Amino acid sequence: MDARALLEQAPDGQVASSATRLAGSSGWQGTGRSDTALWGLCKGSGKNPYQVCVDLGDRATKCSCPSRKFPCKHALALQLRDAREPLPAAEPPDWVDEWLTRRHRAAAAPAPVDSPEAAQRRARAKEKTASARESAVRAGVAGLTDWLADVAGAGLAGLPARDAAWWHSIQARMVDAQAKGLASAVDEVRGIVAAGGPDWAHDAADRLGGLHLLARLAESPDPVVRRRLGFSVAEEEVRGGPGWSDDWVPLLKLESDDGLVRTVRQWAWGRAHGWVVAVRHAGGGARPVPPLTHGVLVQGVLHPYPGVPPHRVAVGEVLAERQPSPVPAPGSWREALAGLEEYLKADPWQRLHPLGCASVRVTEDTARLVDGAGHGVRVRGDLALDQALAVTGGGPFDAWGLWNGRELRLGAVATPGGTPEVVG
User: Fold this and answer.
1) H or E element, residue 42
2) Distance (Å, whole) CA 267 – CA 351
3) What sign has the CA pseudo-torsion 263, 15, 83, 92?
4) Which long-range contacts (CB under 8 A, 24 or more apart) does 396-399 make?
């Protein structure tokens, strides 16, 4: 297994970067390999070095360090060292043999026969948990409805004067009700009010209206409504479902940080399936690694979550990566915006949409991107726009970005009809 494939096994970006540094350190001793395992001792913060070993059969790892991340940085670093230069062949030490023996004995043991009574008990327990969650969310929605009525009665003008404790109270209530989607939506309103600006009241009213609609539809079984409330589907379950095989080009991404968890969202375009979005989270101050290699063509299988386009996806098998080929873009902004209608109808709470247009130019004040018919959309003035101007030299270019209803956050550009280049 090469270094790139190994780093993709890291639980987050922090482990990947720490393992890369640790692989080249001088704190290793007693390293070795056999046909079945890798092992080594790595100096840590304590008196005794950490015992690290890897089962080459399925790449399972064992380390005596206190980390709760799997694989930990020591196990990943040991495999990186072996990938760069094979570890010396040797007989496994006793502690490695003991671990491998326990693993193989457990794997060979017959699976316990599950009695019908035990299966029924688990099914009842699962049903009881789900029912309790539904009741909790229902109570949370009722609380949110009262809160929205209070906000409407007091008026938007009073929101900037509200202190942090007032906002935290309703967010905490939604978290306690296991409706994290509602808690995130309230936090988005708080962020808009705190940021201020000339459009804060319009944007806050828009989000509050969306919350009111969600509360009214909370009993609906619609998967979009369920997801917005905070009900989720496990990624393992999604990966076990059908997959979409395609040539995917990840062109757009957005990173966010709510203070506890960092999130990277990555929009990829597939020739047969259109736009999809992949999401990865990381906690503990780590920076999440994008699920797909950004800006290259990825031939592989992505598994769609329940919902509507652009579907969230879980990354399945990646078969190959190569330089991207041209990606088609609508011929005008009018055509591009009209194409969003079905998405807005399917999910009215979605605020960011991938949007592209062919042969646009930047206006003299760099405030807009104008198409061949003279229609323009406002573009965010940031580093991505500066890079786009540097790449295109001020001439016409194909553009793709994230549209929030007011402005475009530029993400990729190409010479008209050419291969896209990521700029944001």
Assistant:
1) strand 37-42
2) 14
3) negative
4) 396/359, 396/360, 396/361, 397/359, 397/360, 398/327, 398/329, 398/356, 398/357, 398/358, 398/359, 398/360, 399/329, 399/356, 399/357, 399/360, 399/369
Q: Which two tokens stand for residue 68?
A: 């709760």
* Cα angle, residue 333 at apex, residues 331 and 337 outer, rounded to 5°: 115
State how far the Cα of 276 lies from the Cα of 268, in Å rounded to an integer: 5
> Per-residue confidence of the chain (424 residues) as pLDDT tens digits?
777 778 878 877 778 888 888 999 899 999 999 999 999 999 987 788 999 999 998 888 999 988 877 889 999 999 999 988 999 999 999 999 999 988 888 767 665 666 788 888 888 888 998 899 999 999 999 999 999 999 999 999 999 999 999 999 999 999 899 898 999 999 999 999 999 999 999 999 999 999 999 999 999 999 999 999 999 888 889 999 999 999 999 999 999 887 767 889 999 999 999 999 999 887 666 778 889 999 999 999 999 999 889 999 999 998 999 999 999 999 999 999 999 999 999 999 999 999 999 999 999 999 999 999 999 999 999 999 999 999 888 899 999 999 999 999 999 999 999 999 999 8
Residue given tokens 């000339």 in the structure block: 198
- Torsion over CA: 337, 338, 340, 345 (sign): positive
Of 219, 194, 221, the closest CA to residue 207 belongs to 194
Cβ-Cβ contacts under 8 Å for 239 (sequence gap 6 or more) = 303, 314, 316
Q: Which of 5, 71, 4, 66 is nearest to 38 (CA)?
A: 71
Planar angle of CA 92, 97, 102, nearest 5 degrees: 160
User: pTM of the entire structure?
Assistant: 0.71
What would the two tokens of residue 315 be?
């990354």
Reading the block at residue 46, the tokens are 């304590």
Which structure tokens are listed for 417? 């009809």
Token representation of residue 13: 């970006």
Question: Radius of gyration of the chain from Cα atoms?
Answer: 26
